[in-house]
Amino acid sequence: MLINVVAYDTRPQQDKTQKYGAATGGTSDYNIIIGMFDGNRNAEIALVGTHNVYIKSDYLLMNFGTFDCTRIKVDQKGVNVPVSQGATAITITLPIAEPDAIYGVLVIPNWSTSVYIVTKTTTSFTVGFGTSAPSNAKIDWLLYR
Hints:
The protein is mainly β. The chain is 0% helix and 49% strand.
């Protein structure tokens, strides 16, 4: 799964002078992709100022609202996590314990189903599926705060 982080500048066209730069250097104009999380657990993206930030994949676009920060980092994620055929839920053990259970989880299955979070703890979360998993079922997930 490839997740693009996109910054949208919502000011009128004539006011769009803000430049964005990725952590690797350089700048680009407004309304652009500022970086990608592509499987590197420590991938970071530098932002300057306050921006509306969206997580975008081939399947969805999530608005995480406005961030005022210098870095976005994905610490906890799973890619191509196998789900047993016929399963209607899976419990994911977090690689690193969280300080509390007040976090969000984005889950993307590779089959057509509804997805919901059943429980969250500091060490795991359980994902429920509206349609049982077919053969070769997998999910991608990321934890955000």
